[in-house]
Amino acid sequence: TSLPTQILSLFGLERQGVFTFSWIVVAIPLLMVFSLFYFKFFLSLSFRIKRLFLIAMLTFVGGALGMEMVAGLITDTDSLGYNSIPYVLSGAVEELCEMMGIVVFIYALLLQLSQSSEKINVVFLNDTNNNKKEKKSINT
Q: Domain ranges in the chain?
């Protein structure tokens, strides 16, 4: 049996309902530990960036964990299981939430970068067919 399944049985739980996908049991404590490591950094951010980071995290994690738990309930209660329309829709909502969380996070990172630096240099190295490096840069 897998580690997540062993952890479930340790707590007297079974792979059903919200725990149909047992990786969730491992993901929740790892997420909490990760959050503890970055909490001091999070507190050092400006209010606006903090709010955007929080929105991004809640959107991403809500999609990844929350909708995965919903999908687990659907597979347990719907006779079609993985082939049902509700299951497919829950997967689409999960992916949408994850992508939206990433978009908000990238926006927050770029906003933080723009507030903390006066000048940003980005350099792209393009290896053309003749192995001659071509340098392109963007200065803002």
A: 3-139
Q: What is the dihedral of CA 9, 11, 17, 19, to 10 degrees?
A: -80
Geometric angle at alpha carbon 101, from 96 and 105, rounded to 5°: 150
pTM: 0.74
Please state, in angstroms and rounded to a whole number, the distance separating the CA atoms of residues 46 and 115: 10
Q: Please write the tens of the pLDDT for every residue from 60-115.
A: 999 999 998 888 888 888 777 778 898 899 999 999 999 999 999 999 999 999 88
The two three-digit tokens of residue 73, written as one number: 């309930």
Are 41 and 93 in contact by the 8 Å Cβ rule? The answer is no
Bridge partners of 122, per DSSP, are 138
